[in-house]
Amino acid sequence: xxxxxxxxxxxxxxxxxxxxxxxxxxxxxxxxxxxxxxxxxxxxxxxxxxxxxxxxxxxxxxxxxxxxxxxxxxxxxxxxxxxxxxxxxxxxxxxxxxxxxxxxxxxxxxxxxxxxxxxxxxxxxxxxxxxxxxxxxxxxxxxxxxxxxxxxxxxxxxxxxxxxxxxxxxxxxxxxxxxxxxxxxxxxxxxxxxxxxxxxxxxxxxxxxxxxxxxxxxxxxxxxxxxxxxxxxxxxxxxxxxxxxxxxxxxxxxxxxxxxxxxxxxxxxxxxxxxxxxxxxxxxxxxxxxxxxxxxxxxxxxxxxxxxxxxxxxxxxxxxxxxxxxxxxxxxxxxxxxxxxxxxxxxxxxxxxxxxxxxxxxxxxxxxxxxxxxxxxxxxxxxxxxxxxxxxxxxxxxxxxxxxxxxxxxxxxxxxxxxxxxxxxxxxxxxxxxxxxxxxxxxxxxxxxxxxxxxxxxxxxxxxxxxxxxxxxxxxxxxxxxxxxxxxxxxxxxxxxxxxxxxxxxxxxxxxxxxxxxxxxxxxxxxxxxxxxxxxxxxxxxxxxxxxxxxxxxxxxxxxxxxxxxxxxxxxxxxxxxxxxxxxxxxxxxxxxxxxxxxxxxxxxxxxxxxxxxxxxxxxxxxxxxxxxxxxxxxxxxxxxxxxxxxxxxxxxxxxxxxxxxxxxxxxxxxxxxxxxxxxxxxxxxxxxxxxxxxxxxxxxxxxxxxxxxxxxxxxxxxxxxxxxxxxxxxxxxxx
Length: 736
What we know:
The structure is a single chain. The chain is an alpha/beta fold. The protein has 4 domains: 12-163, 2-Layer Sandwich (VC0802-like), CATH 3.30.2130.30; 185-237 and 262-409, 3-Layer(aba) Sandwich (Rossmann fold); 423-520, Transcription Regulator spoIIAA (2-Layer Sandwich); 537-735, Vaccinia Virus protein VP39 (Rossmann fold). It is built from 19 helices and 30 strands. The strands form 6 sheets. The protein has an 8-stranded mixed beta sheet. It has a 7-stranded mixed beta sheet with strand order 11-10-9-12-13-15-14, with helices on one face. Strand 16 and strand 17 form a beta hairpin. Helix 10 packs across helix 13 (485-507) and helix 14 packs parallel to helix 15.
């Protein structure tokens, strides 16, 4: 290995790291510091500069993550090569007795595949060097080392260097707490730079983030406008590396203080808002630690109803990414709301939207004139730059825009009005009101707290809307691929507004009690996978039974409303019977059977989550779990092994089931005859099997009718609220 990166009296080799995608911005910043000998790199730049220039980066750079002084580089293949290459450097020149070290390793070769092993080998070489010279071996301190050593192997070539700051420079020391998915401060500064912030030509510029979270974009923007050096916030006490020049750093500290004093004359301000009260509280504390709290006004408010007291110069935000199941619809609506906010409050301003889903930028209703490909950590993303004016607003949004009052002409304290409905959404609202008068009245007369209010009555609004007491569950049937994502989201937003308006006016149900999801065919274990949103457990009544439902936690709510008549029939005919519930889900049918006097029951399902839910339903209804048993098992295996007799069996299998927890694959059209046969083997001569499924094209095998007495009870198993959708399930009573 060649130690071909020697330190000289004036010049050193450095690698200046940064977030991937902002290398060109970092180069411009370094040239502004007077550094010209720059070579491009990935997630950073190579340069040759003086120690004083490196200190200027430590003090003033807003984009740099680390300043690494390179000591040596050369080819390596094996562990022996790595050990020898590390020994080339005289580490006694960089570590004093009693000092500690840590190794950060990256990359590798065909033989060196584990970074932990690479770090260990580099450490061994350094420690052995000290030991051979009769010196105390340096300690390893991974948390707060005196010397942080970087060992990077790329294309079979090792680079060894030391971190001049000993920590990542994105840390400004004001963000000691943070909300969900925060941006690194360096990335936030890069986004602001791309959006041409600060604006020295606008002395009273206003920066706005309507989804500010813990406030990183706003705080970084204020620090940039005030010319507060990041190094001032860190304090930039130098590491114990023996070749540091404290006098040079002290001079830069004086320069930074002078620039901060001059920057205090800036006359602008910043506005921030978020629907999360906890995030706003964190943002306030972060701003206080950064020293910018007097220039930042924060409020807890969703973007739908946010009003600004003065027009902004730049609106910048980083909307949620919807990486988790069940969040896409919610975030699509948020983009629509953000676009409406921009057209309402920011006409004439610039906007910068940082998103990992750039295709959703169309939902804003405003053309972007520039897009930059960036990364948020390892996640690819784009920064969309917009000019909010008549020329950039999509035509389909112009009618809505024309009715919105610009912020500068609206009274400061006006109450937000309900967003307008388009003609189609108004028709949907009228249909919902009509259904409430008929189905709502019927449900009230029958004592049903839970019922289906709307089921794609209007084909262009393909939703299933269910009432659960004081809550509403709104599911959209997946739109065909011929319908664009933008059009689908716009229609979804209008349908949501129509439902919120009707529920608020007719039943007093607030929008926060309305949950919206997109229904898609689920495969394998997807139907059992939680959405990562806990949601609220709601207690509802159904006849004598009480059930726990949750409208957000899973794709299903815990209660299949279309089976209400079957559950009631079971409850009315269960006295003294032995009841078996297969594919029991949350065991709601078992609750009715037990309350109806069943002598004992067995409920079988493969999902532990649903059986735990069933146990809570049992506890809510005071059932004796010694007589009413829950079994976690594949139902097909249970039937093959069961030797007990039952008087009443409820068999309601899914259309298709494929799970890693069982080697069985269920296809109900193919397998139903065998399932029925196994169930009938468990029934006495006067026993009854209730067989139901929701396969839309299901056909009962003729052999079943030839062997058993079969009665089609589908029509009788549908209540008034499901008469419009007779194919939602099919039901048969089967007897010997």
